[in-house]
Specification:
The complex is a heterodimer of chains A (196) and B (71). With 196 residues, chain A is an all-alpha fold. Chain A has seven helices and no strands. Chain A is globular and about 50 Å long. At the A-B interface, helix 6 of A face helix 2 and helix 3 of B.
């Protein structure tokens, strides 16, 4: 089948798969020592550039499925910028802490700098819920957000007690946002539109 | 809530996208309303009624009302 015949939805999923393979593959090359140091780090960071076509093709798929809206496009753009900034801030922060061992005050500033792009992602979701003028799409987003929140609270409660009874290792609190995002994805799966 | 949106749209040979553009909503909204998965708000129901130049109750029918009619 020619590339032009692949549906926008399939193309978007191929970019999602490509992004995960590239980022996990390059992380493995770096971590295993096959491609150590700066070359490995540059390759790993470069894999995040795939987020740009991923978002572009996701928007095309959303348009083909009738989900496109001005608020959704703004959300995609905000999350893309925040994600790229997050990766840059995270790796810069990790590098500074590891190689320069800065004092506590500098560590606080680094922690805030890394957390800020994630806060912008949360803000992007809030703005999407506020600015979405299509009542059906907004209702779906609210429902998905509730599913994501329920998922996060359930997993956090269960894991918290497993950890309290020494059955599971401690997990950093920043994992809450990625977990919530997984819940959002689950919410989309549960409310998948058959017409798309 | 039951509705005759699909019939009214078909009578005008409009696609779901045509109707969505006229109502300034997404195509998914039109699809969800037509298939009964989503009940529109009162303002949107009024916009639909005004577009088709019919009273709201001619387009949107209570399920209990339609079933009592059938009896």
């Amino acid at each position: 089948m020619a590339i032009g015949q692949i549906s926008p939805r399939t193309t978007a999923w191929l970019w999602v798969a490509g992004y995960f393979i590239a980022s996990l593959g390059s992380a493995l090359l770096l971590k295993s020592g096959i491609l150590p140091g700066w070359p490995g780090m540059v390759l790993f960071l470069s894999s995040f550039l795939l987020l740009i076509p991923l978002v572009r093709y996701t928007e095309r798929a959303q348009a083909a499925c009738g989900f496109a809206s001005k608020a959704m496009r703004a959300y995609n753009r905000r999350v893309l910028i925040a994600s790229m900034t997050y990766v840059a801030a995270l790796f810069a922060g990790m590098g500074i802490v590891r190689y320069y061992d800065p004092p506590a005050l500098v560590r606080i500033v680094i922690a805030i700098a890394v957390a800020l792009p994630v806060m912008f992602m949360i803000r992007a979701m809030a703005l999407l819920l506020r600015d979405e003028t299509d009542e059906y799409l907004r209702a779906r987003l609210v429902e998905q957000s509730l599913i994501a929140t329920g998922f996060l609270l359930t997993v956090a409660t269960l894991y918290g007690f497993l950890n309290a009874f020494d059955l599971a290792p401690r997990v950093d609190a920043w994992a809450a946002v990625p977990l919530w995002a997984i819940g959002l994805g689950l919410g989309r799966l549960f409310r998948k539109d058959p017409s798309c | 809530m039951l509705n005759d949106l699909k019939v009214l749209r078909a009578a005008r040979s409009w696609s779901q996208q045509d109707l969505a553009d006229r109502l300034e909503v997404s195509r998914q909204s039109v699809n969800a309303i037509e298939t009964g998965k989503y009940d529109p708000s009162l303002p949107l129901a009024f916009r639909i009624a005004e577009l088709f130049e019919r009273p709201i109750e001619e387009i949107f029918v209570s399920p209990s009302h339609r079933s009592s009619k059938a009896i």
